[in-house]
Amino acid sequence: MPAISIKKQLEAMGHSADILCLEDLYSDREAVIEETKRSFHQDFRLAKMSYRMPTRNTSAIDAGLADKLLGRLVDDMYDTVIIFSGFWMKIINELLESCDHYKDRIYALHMDAGQSLSWKGFDRSCVKDVWLYSLEHGKVQSLLERPVVVKPESKRILVHGGGWGIGDYASRIKQLNELGYALDIVIYYPDEIDTDDMINTYYLLDPEWKPDEKRSEYPRLLIYKEGKFVPFGDNTGDINPLRELMNRDVAVLSKPGGGTLSDSLITATPLILGEELARYEADNKKLWIDLGFAVDLSELLNVEHSGDDEPKTEELLEECRQNLLSAQTGLPHVLDLII
Q: 0.70 exceeded by the pTM?
């Protein structure tokens, strides 16, 4: 999703841009991705355990497909290469060994406040690091997109688990309802909907959408109405499907993934953060709470009500929102640091 955002912004600036997906180099893409995705979605403990173990996604790469990609990169001679994951580093190192053109042209765009596991064990001296936010420096350093802020119009909270729907958020739905909030819940498989739920609204990210080189539009968002899912909002693929919900809702409940932090900053939407997946997400969570952009889920659920029966949660979330609005001022756009 961040890569799609960058591509669309570059094209709006008059540049041509392509998206290359590491997954397109997997010899058995469906087996490698889909089975893992569903397993992690269904079992948060399994996902956490897997992220603690040393891993190399490069082991799934087909050598023949990688060679074809390297040949294409040499032929096309891109002015700039932006990578979002350390899993690209093996290919990048091979590219630099065979083509001097790319020296000083490769940027590593870090979506987390600390170093994510994908970079573990790789020497990054051959790439230029660009950080959106940094726990080490205790601040936000750049914006993925220019801010577009719309004042919340409803007392609703958006609930999602990032791109793979990972987290412990589903068990908290009733507790948030008891605080007086209706929820916009993003599910990841149609059979997850609670058809008896008369309080909350359910959305589904298009299950047919898959990231690949030929598809550089956002997935559609579907809304559950009258017993079926129908298109919601802009369905051209030009707009991040969650932005409309984020701009109208007072907060987002999610795990502290890097993309969620970026969405929070761009829209000035406070985060209610559940349990982190790995150490780098713990860094994300600490930074966002330290900066006053988020509250811990357990803290929110334990907050006392004031004497007039108005929950203090509203005050907490509005304070976070104002902090986010203040933080947007004067921040450079990430592409200003690259292009």
A: yes
